Amino acid sequence: MPELPEVTTTVNGLNEVLPRLTITDIWTDYFLRTKNKRTDTIKNKKYFEYFKKEIVGEKVKKAERRGKNVLIHLTHGKTILIHMKMTGHLLYGKYKKSGETWRSEDKLLRVPFNQFVHLVFTMSNGKHLAFSDMRKFAKVVLFETDSRDTTSHLADLGPEPLDDLTLETFKTRLQTKPEGKIKTVLMDQSVIAGIGNIYSDEILWETGIHPERKVKKLKEIEIKDMLKAMKKILLASIKMGGDSMSDYRDIYGQKGNLQNAHKVYRRVGEKCSKKNCSGKILRKIIGGRSSHFCSNHQK
Do 5 and 258 form a contact (C-beta atoms < 8 A)? Predict the structure, then answer.
């Protein structure tokens, strides 16, 4: 699932191309291809009809990230929220529709990971913002921009790791789950927004903390080290364009590069690269998610 660096990379790309463009049309086949019981997403046909009526003719002001959500702010006080979920990513370029399939002439946009197009925004410059979503898990909704902090889609998110998050605030947020295992708590979006499987593993490896340590057992110096590592790793990944070990691509269809710099994530069986460490990388399911950690230096 795209995490904070991948969503930031997407938002940065959108802000290069979308502001001042008008949405002239929108297409989706989500409600034909998914079984959805909710009525407040575009996977519901009636909701999509409302969504289309509200956004066609609107101009894009800017894009923003909140947690793992892409927010596209429009004129007249509307905001499109896109949560890319497991396999989704936004792509920008020129597409053509053939039957019920959208194709691009751009080679990068035609690679296998980029061809599961289920949502297309047509823009006033003749180009398209397409959403490729192989597993069709994504969420796309519309809300009033003024309700950004109170809408049910965002209200329960914790603070942002890179928005002047202080040690005291970080400590306070962690302590809301004192019995929780630190791996699971770092991934809890109500505690801290934007961190998932990849970055929790990398942060804990960097700080030498075992993913099953309970929050209440952490020392203040360890929490301080985690905060420092969190900011360092997230910022480094943003500079690298995010992580593309799985499906993620930027809006031009290009891979990020963090997967080439993993210290622990998906390195099962390899020797730990920490200096003077003789451990090996192990994998264990914690809280229903894979966790990768060193057998030696993570205590």
Answer: yes
Q: Where are the alpha helices (H) located in the chain, listed in sequence order? A: 4-17, 30-33, 45-55, 167-174, 182-187, 197-207, 220-239
pTM over 0.85: yes
Inter-residue contact 32 to 269 (CB < 8 Å): no
Q: Report the pLDDT value the prediction gives residue 180, as an integer from 0 to 100.
A: 98
Q: Is the pLDDT of residue 37 over 70?
A: no
Q: Which residues form the catalytic set?
A: 2-3, 68, 289
Closest CA to 213 of 190, 189, 225, 165: 225
Identify the CA nearest to 244 among candidates 256, 261, 260.
Answer: 256
DSSP state of 289: E
Q: Are 95 and 26 in contact (CB under 8 A)?
A: no
DSSP β-bridge partners for residue 104? 95
- What's the pLDDT tens digit per position in 208-263? 999 999 999 999 999 999 999 999 999 999 999 999 998 899 999 999 999 999 99
The CA distance from 267 to 280, in Å, is 9
> Is residue 35 over pLDDT 80?
no
Q: Is 80 exceeded by the pLDDT of residue 33?
A: no
Q: Token pair for residue 25?
A: 């049309």
